[in-house]
Design brief:
By secondary structure, the chain is of the alpha/beta class. It has 16 helices and 8 strands. It has helices at about 10-20, 35-45, 65-70, 85-90, 115-125, 140, 155-165, 180-200, 205-225, 230-235, 235-250, 255-260, 265-275, 280-295, 300-310, 315-320; strands at about 5, 25-30, 60, 75, 100-105, 130-135, 145-150, 170-175. About 50% of the residues are buried. The model has no long low-confidence stretch (mean pLDDT about 95).
Length: about 325
């Protein structure tokens, strides 16, 4: 049994708290929003984000950050990516040396081009930072639907410890040393999912969706490997696995926002209607800056940026992708001339 602090009371933090509580661990959930904590403590359910998912009477809810962090074996950082740095900055005073922080948000910090684990390490250098990622909608994890994910850490001992804490008969956990690759796959797939949603909003079909998933994964792997990620990671759970589920499911806020944009709404209108943080919007510009820095071609992500930020119509973006110069899928000299 471990003492675990969940930093963030959104749908993902709540879903993981249910999983970890069911695994027999002691759970303390923190939020900066007093009304959220009062609601959770009273109702024992997040009715707007995870309706029907009941929270155990044993769970503790607090707005006291020190209480959520002190004497905890693991901290699960589950705030939206845009709040990762500010939250980590508030946490650092209370985090002990080598205390494990498992980041479960997905994104790239636009101003620094850092992954979120790098942001946490920058703010809390004494922490042992790991990441948890994969095809895992909170709506399904909270209901105990079988799910498989991967934990990335800089040491085998930390990865295996986290694996043992989270593993259950409905939540299978693999381990990996490729923290960078896991995070890049997790962040960049949200941008491709926006593209997939836009195609759905335009009324396109399965052929288009399959093309976007396949070529989008090529872009993610191309950039990720140039940055130091491993090819196997992009073929795995936090790569193609997470990309498929995010592009295909209506649980995906990125796909839902994309659908609304494809139907003619602006980026802001789409985000307002989804009523949740659309992480792909925050990662899209960072992805373009990384592509420029590492001299990598990412045409799908480029067109998503054009639609989101430069007023380009979704139809024009798709047409431009289709009429690009002819390309070779597999580079090989084995053909007979």
């Amino acid at each position: 049994m471990a003492n675990i602090g969940i930093i963030g009371a959104g749908s993902w933090g709540i879903a993981l708290s249910v999983l970890l509580n069911n695994n027999g661990h002691n759970i303390t959930i923190w939020s900066a929003h007093e009304d959220t904590i009062e609601m959770l403590d009273k109702e024992r359910e997040h009715k707007s984000k995870l309706p029907g998912v009941k929270l155990s009477d044993e769970m503790i809810f607090t707005t006291n950050l020190e209480k959520a962090i002190k004497d905890k074996d693991i901290l699960v950082l589950a705030v939206p990516s845009s709040f990762t740095r500010t939250t980590a900055n508030k946490m650092k005073t209370f985090v002990s040396d080598k205390q494990i922080i498992v980041n479960v948000a997905k994104g790239i910090e636009e101003s620094t081009l850092m992954t979120l684990s790098q942001v946490i390490e920058d703010e809390i250098p004494q922490a042992d930072v790991a990441v948890l990622s994969g095809p895992s909608h909170a709506e399904e994890v909270g209901r105990g639907i079988p799910t498989t994910i991967v934990v990335g850490a800089t040491s085998r001992n930390t990865a295996e410890y986290i694996q043992n804490i989270f593993m259950s008969d409905v939540f299978r956990v693999y381990t990996s040393p490729d923290v960078l690759g896991i995070e890049l796959g997790a962040a960049l797939k949200n941008v491709v999912a926006l593209a997939a949603g836009i195609a759905d909003g335009l009324g396109y079909g399965d052929n288009t969706k399959a093309a976007l998933i396949t070529r989008g994964m090529t872009e993610i792997a191309r950039l990720g490997m140039k940055m130091g990620g491993r090819f196997e990671t992009f073929c795995g759970l936090s790569g193609i696995g997470d990309l498929i589920v995010t592009c295909a499911s209506m649980h995906s806020r990125n796909r839902r926002a994309g659908i609304l944009i494809g139907q003619g709404k602006t980026m802001k209108e789409a985000m307002d209607e989804v009523k949740m943080v659309v992480e792909g919007v925050f990662s899209a510009k960072a992805a373009m800056e990384l592509a420029k820095k590492y001299d990598v071609e990412i045409p799908i992500i480029e067109q998503v940026n054009e639609v989101l930020f430069n007023g380009k119509s979704a139809e024009s973006a798709v047409k431009e992708l289709m009429i690009r110069d002819k390309k070779i899928e597999i580079f090989d000299d084995s053909w007979d001339e």
